[in-house]
């Protein structure tokens, strides 16, 4: 994963160098920075088929089944970009996104004889944890300035590949203050995104960008242990996958 991103990084640096030595005769600004704020990310799905500590039904393995995932407390998405315009139609950038699912809640049904591994909400133990992601991407975009839209509007498409650091922390098993704690973990994962947007040029230096970004930052996971007050017990980790989820973004850019 890191090797893939390193290769992408080197290709973009080489491209920027070639373009910067050959294209400065053009009459538009080449470099740009952009700050953006986006809608909360909501979509997430459960991972492992069974989770938790062994012993609820059988001594050898876990029997917990997850369900009822709720990300209602998700926070806004923050983004930053540093980019280079190869031409009026093609551009490249590095971007950073902070995605925050907030306090995510779910239930885990540890089953009983004759009802396993079916998830039943009424039989589930409540859980909660804070999920967040720091993601970086190397992206390429194609803009079309020759549309039915006024001249200052440029629709564009983009694709990006990158890496994310996904954090699962502050987990609690049980209602209230809980009675157990799945341990925290930060996991590196492959990430990718697709962009569909519209850019408006206020003047030569300032632009506004409205976009829908479909982003997948990969896997979140607890540690393989739980415990409280010094205790330690092996578990099958609680895992989630970021689905390819839309974020609706508003950004402002400065070109130089």
Describe the 3D structure.
It is a single chain. Helices cover 8% and strands 56% of the residues. The protein is mainly beta. It has a single domain, classed as Beta Barrel (Porin). The strands form 3 sheets. It has an 8-stranded antiparallel β-barrel. The longest helix has 21 residues, at 2-22.
Write a brief caption for the model.
With 256 residues, this protein is mostly beta strands. Helices cover 8% and strands 56% of the residues.
Helix content: under 10%
Q: What is the helix/strand order?
A: HEEEEEEEEEEEEEEE
Number of helices: 1
Give a count of the beta strands, DSSP E runs of length 2 or more. Answer: 15
Summarize model confidence as the mean pLDDT. 87
Any low-confidence stretches, pLDDT <50, length ≥5?
A: 19-25
Give the CATH architecture: Beta Barrel
Q: Given the helix and strand composition, which structural class is it?
A: mainly beta
- Arrangement of strands in the largest sheet: 1-5-6-7-8-9-10-15
Number of domain modules: 1
Shape, per Cα inertia axes: elongated
How many whole angstroms does the radius of gyration measure?
Answer: 23 Å
Kindly report the CATH topology.
Porin
Largest sheet: 8 strands, antiparallel, barrel
Termini distance? 33 Å
Strand content: over 45%
Reading off the top of the CATH hierarchy, the class is best stated as Mainly Beta
